[in-house]
Amino acid sequence: MLFLAVFCGFMAENIREHNIEHKRAKVFAASMIDDLASDTAELKNYVKYVTYAANNVDTLLQLLSANNPTEIPSGKLYWYGLWGGAHRVFVSNDATLQQMKSSGSLRYFTNKSLGQKVAQYDQLCRKMKTLEEMDQMMHTEVRKMRARIFEFRYNAVANNLYQSSQYFPDQKRIDSFISTRPPLLTYDKAIFNEYIELVRSRFLNRKVTSADTLLIRATTLISDLKTEYHLK
To answer: How far, CA to CA in Å, does 194 sit from each of 91, 139, 141, 191, 209?
Structure first.
């Protein structure tokens, strides 16, 4: 009888601890969902911007591959050349994940598959951060080289043209600017070539691919957390 009483007490304590940990896991899951929702919103904007920048850079590459800089209207060079210096950084909203990692609370996610997906998302975020850090160094060099080709005041006009209609570019205004002929600081092919090689080294399309992968993983993880812990 004594053994039975001790065993039952032990089982009751285990059940109580399991229930407590499950409740804590549910709280962490809800908080992580909020973080991931912020990530998905930021990633959608990030992908739009960097995709737009990468497409314009591709157009610049095509223009300069087929023509001497002197044969290209300077308005085109200013508009498409602007995007070599495009800059957008994704920083994950990972407060909940970092808290769970530092406190050892990830063990509350007892579903192994879910735990693996959380770990994989964390790993992808760290890879993205490394990619951003590498790009930041190249971005600085690109801006320096761009300043040797394009006059600041006309570059600012092109930049303001985009900023005034973010994500919904006014193509008529863009075409109007492209048709103008603002002066360049140089038409030196060697300088243009160096600028293009620097821009190519930024791997903007790779950034888009990485962000797309993160967006898919974040969306899937939100769904899995909601299913596992019956959250809306």
So the answer is: 30, 14, 11, 5, 25
Range of the domain at 45: 11-229
Query: What are the two backbone dihedrals, phi and then psi, of residue 138, each rounded to the nearest 5 degrees?
Result: -70, -35
Q: With b meaning 16 or more CB within 10 Å and e meaning fewer, what string describes 207-232? A: bbebbeebbebbeebbebbeebbeee
Could you read off the pLDDT of 147-178 as tens digits, one per residue? 999 999 998 888 888 776 665 677 888 899 99
Q: Are 225 and 114 in contact, with CB atoms under 8 Å apart?
A: yes
User: Could you tell me if 157 and 203 are in contact, meaning their C-beta atoms sit under 8 angstroms apart?
Assistant: no
Residue 31, in any domain of the structure: yes
Number of domains in the chain: 1
Hey, what are 47's tokens? Answer: 């992908």
Closest CA to 90 of 205, 211, 212: 211
Flag whether 6 is in a domain.
no
Cα(142)–Cα(86) distance, integer angstroms: 10
Residue 216 lies in a domain: yes
The token pair that represents 104 in the structure block:
């050892």
pLDDT digits (tens, 9 = 90+) for 29-81: 999 999 999 999 999 999 999 999 999 999 999 999 989 999 999 999 999 99
pTM equals 0.86
Burial of 135: CB neighbours in 10 Å, binned 0-12, 13-18, 19+? buried
**Dihedral over alpha carbons 217, 211, 99, 26 (to 10 degrees):** -30
